[in-house]
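Closing statement on the glyoxylic acid sub-project.
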Amino acid sequence: MKKILITRRLIQSSEEYASNIFNVKLNKEDRLLTKDELISKSSDCDGILSSLTEKFDSDVILKLSNKVKIISNFAVGFGNIDLDEAKKKNIVVTNTPDVLTDATAEIAILVLLCAARRAKEGMEWTKKNWKWSADFLMGKQLTGSRLGILGMGRIGRAVADRARSFGMRIHYYNRSRLDKNLEKDAIYHKSLESLLSVSDFFSINCPATKETRHIINNKTIKHFPDGAIISNSARGDMIDDDAMVEALKNGKIFSLGLDVYNGEPNIHPEYLTLPNVFVLPHLGSATTKTRTAMGDLAIKNIEEFFKTGKCKNKVN
Ligand code: GLV
């Protein structure tokens, strides 16, 4: 039986599933393991089932035991793992696509709506001093607005589907133009600047890569229409936080909805104090149905790899 380190707690049924087919080492207290612990606890293991909270940088990967053959990430994103270093060490890295698309698209719309309709301020007023007047806490309406989507993969397209039902017009920028059947009525832009210039609302749904790091910065922010609303449900890396905070303060950006941010859990302090920033703690896939499906898929990825030497969800 292969031995697997599962770095964080999974939904109980997934842990039971894993225990039936592998010899598992669980992290019963669900404590964030240090780099040294990741290395030592996996030293007698054939594989690791990791979460986005663990950073497998080159330093950690180089020190992993040669016995470790697979890192199965419990996430669709894999920016927490140095893929090249893993490949050099013959470690296969896998992810959990598809099963979280709907849940994540729901959160993308949630943070967009909360930012647009000033939910954070509304909640604070409700707790402190309920009031109502005809021009109190004026927000912006999604209906009839243009939504720019950066990254039209599975999640970007699921966000587009939901936004259409709000009566939004969809624009997008992607590495390449989509086929007509996937694009539906969305308008493709050949450059990011062109997309930003029509984005009354903007949703970040691209992967974190060297190319997309800080793609929203003080130069690109200038291209947005004044008073644009931004949501990020992908990874914090895409936003230069200092540039964003400045734009939120001077009104260039009306409001920001975040499910993810740079350096989680160390959020930029002004995101917590600015009234026009609505934040959640990376809840994109946090429904029982989705987290169970992700856990089961992360386990199946390991099983498939040890049975066949391959895995369809391999990312490196
Ligand atoms: C969540 O952010 C994921 O990548 O699965």
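DSSP finds twelve helices and twelve strands in the chain. With this model delivered, the sub-project is considered complete and its resources will be redirected to Aim 3.
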